[in-house]
TrEMBL record, chain A:
Domain annotation Large ribosomal subunit protein mL44 dsRNA binding: ranges: 230-334
Subcellular location: Mitochondrion
Recorded family membership: Belongs to the ribonuclease III family. Mitochondrion-specific ribosomal protein mL44 subfamily.
Record organism: Dreissena polymorpha (Zebra mussel)
This protein's name: Large ribosomal subunit protein mL44
One GO cellular component term: ribonucleoprotein complex
Chief place where the protein resides: mitochondrion
TrEMBL record, chain B:
Protein name: Large ribosomal subunit protein mL43
Keywords annotated in UniProt: Mitochondrion, Ribonucleoprotein, Ribosomal protein
One annotated Gene Ontology cellular component of this protein: mitochondrial large ribosomal subunit
A Pfam family hit: L51_S25_CI-B8
Residue intervals of the Ribosomal protein/NADH dehydrogenase domain: 35-108
SMART domains: L51_S25_CI-B8
Similarity field: Belongs to the mitochondrion-specific ribosomal protein mL43 family.
Organism: Dreissena polymorpha
Localisation: Mitochondrion
Entry keyword annotation includes Cell inner membrane: no
Region Disordered: start-end pairs: 175-197
InterPro entries assigned: Ribosomal_mL43 (IPR039927), Ribosomal_mL43/mS25/NADH_DH (IPR007741), Thioredoxin-like_sf (IPR036249)
Molecular function in Gene Ontology: structural constituent of ribosome
Biological process, per Gene Ontology: mitochondrial translation
């Protein structure tokens, strides 16, 4: 800032600069105090600094993700409903009665959400064929949860691209935009745009959208215990039902080991035997906890969800998966009522 | 300053980048330079010679050139996670500017910190941590402490009878292995015969 200019502007709001070096510390202290009083700077959109080209940013967004987007649809994916409303309000206040037909991303987001949800379920059923439908739904709910979607969206660089009345945009805006981007991808086959009746090309857009979900959303399962997402109230009851349905005997919990009894850190190791075979075991602080955990471990082993199972098929391994969308895994009710 | 006071972190991969496909985390570059000042000479040279090639090769990075009168050239890099870094380009040659840009392009957008280890995993052991019970046979639960088998001397060498038993076992195994092989060769021969007829 030009010091001379400060003098003339307003000597009340600006701290007058020190005239002697002895006053420097006091001057800086005063500046610091005033800064604390004012509070942190308002977060501003890059366009406020005069460096912003929305069209280029939208173009680069698609290129960065390695997708061929329909430019119009992609641009639409960033327009929030609240933004359109606030713009209309602004025009009304200015006395402009323009009928601007700008479409927001609500419809695209709705389509994207349905596609993502369907794909995630089909993929999970394909990856965990023996898991109960309830478990599949629990993992699906985790992937489609607010926190997971927000985490993915906030790391895709959509913050500055989102057109919303507030900056930074709300978490809901991030999620809607992510879903709308997926929705835009389903409509983004340039050859299909020329010929609406070509079914194969529309399918191509769909499969790109599915790969997008696979590459950006599903990897959030890495490093997480998927069985913990499914809340099981009575694992032993379920185990009994499952064993009966498979024609096996009753589970027989047995104490394998225990140590440090009557201390503050005892440990019990319970194993579950079925037809005299050990099929699961787990430690616990009390015998009851250990038994419950052993039942969970046994369920893991029986449902093909053990910790040592091979990892999920992702990336290049999963480019040509044959997913069947009509397939459903067996539910707890179906299995245990047999 | 000791290492414990310097903030440290583990290796991070932003949003599992590269598991599905790799996304360049550099989002935006802003090069602010002066049109006339000699300190921006190299930056101007970069814009003239290399900028178009760079933008053609990197369509996913938006490049802004910002004229700032009589200011030192500054490069601002913005990443997908919102992190922003500024680099002072005074006294940098054209090649050095290109190197800075290359460095920013390869970064993940995580602030540089001391890394505690060169590797990191969220699940250090899939089998689970070792515990005293892990490889213990439950047979020990019902074996008396004074049982002879626990204190028996285990010889380093095999006895003659042990060796004989092992040889017999080996012979048996080999026979079992040869059995299906012979069968299959017979089947092949029969097929050949049938084909020749």
């Amino acid at each position: 800032m030009c010091v001379a200019a400060q003098k003339y502007v307003n000597t009340v709001t600006y701290a007058p600069k020190y005239t002697s070096s002895r006053r420097k510390v006091a001057y800086l202290k005063e500046l610091y105090r005033r800064k604390l009083e004012v509070g942190p700077d308002e977060v501003k959109h890059p366009s406020a600094f005069g460096c912003w080209n929305h069209a280029s940013e939208v173009y680069a967004f698609g290129k960065r993700l390695g997708e061929e987007f329909d430019e119009q649809k992609l641009a639409q994916a960033f327009i929030q409903k609240s933004f359109v409303e606030s713009e209309k309000e602004k025009q009304k206040n200015l006395g402009l009665l323009l009928d601007v037909n700008v479409e927001d991303n609500t419809k695209l987001a709705h389509e994207g959400r349905i596609l993502a949800s369907d794909f995630v379920k089909a993929y999970l059923r394909y990856s965990y064929p023996h898991l109960f439908e309830e478990g599949i739904c629990a993992i699906h709910d985790f992937l489609m949860s607010h926190s997971t979607l927000f985490h993915v969206a906030s790391n895709l660089g959509v913050r500055d691209l989102i057109q919303s009345p507030t900056y930074p945009p709300s978490e809901e805006d991030y999620i809607t935009t992510l879903m709308a981007v997926i929705g835009a991808l389903t409509h983004s086959d340039l050859s299909a745009a020329n010929n609406d009746h070509d079914v194969t090309n529309t399918k191509k857009g769909l499969s790109r959208a599915e790969l997008f979900v696979l590459d950006f959303l599903v990897p959030q399962l890495i490093g997480r215990d998927v069985m913990e997402m499914w809340e099981l109230a009575n694992p032993m009851g379920l185990l009994v039902g499952l064993l009966r349905a498979r024609g096996l005997g009753q589970p027989e919990p047995r104490m394998l080991w225990d140590a440090a009894k009557n201390t503050i850190m005892p440990v019990y190791n319970v194993g579950i035997y079925v037809d005299k075979k050990l099929i699961g075991k787990s430690p616990g602080e009390t015998a009851a906890i250990a038994e419950e955990m052993a039942a969970r471990d046994t369920l893991r082993n029986l449902l093909g969800m053990s910790n040592s199972r091979s990892p999920l098929q992702l990336g290049d391994q999963a480019r040509h998966l044959q997913l069947d969308y009509r397939l459903r895994n067996a539910s707890v009710q179906e299995v245990t009522s047999v | 300053m000791g290492s414990s006071t310097i903030p440290s972190t583990f290796l991070k991969n932003i949003a599992q980048n590269g598991i599905g496909r790799h996304v360049c985390q550099l989002q935006r570059l802003t090069l602010s330079l002066c049109k006339s000042h000699p300190s921006s000479a190299a930056a101007r040279k970069f814009v003239e010679d290399d900028l178009l090639d760079f933008t053609k090769g990197n369509p996913g990075i938006v490049f802004y050139v910002k004229p700032r009168r009589h200011r030192a050239p500054v490069l601002t890099a913005e990443f997908l996670n919102g992190y922003k870094e500024m680099i002072d380009l005074t006294r940098c040659t054209k090649e050095e500017i290109a190197q800075w840009i290359g460095l920013m392009r390869g970064r993940s957008g995580v602030q540089i910190m001391r890394i505690r280890k060169d590797w990191h995993t969220d699940t250090p052991s899939i089998q689970g941590m070792w515990n005293p019970f892990m490889f213990k046979d439950t047979k020990l639960n019902v074996t008396d402490k004074m049982d002879k088998s626990l204190s028996e001397y285990i010889s380093k060498y095999k006895s003659a009878s042990q060796k004989l038993i092992e040889m017999k076992k080996l012979q048996k195994q080999q026979k079992e292995l040869e059995q299906p092989l012979k069968e299959s060769t017979r089947v092949i021969q029969e097929k050949k015969k049938a084909a020749s007829h």
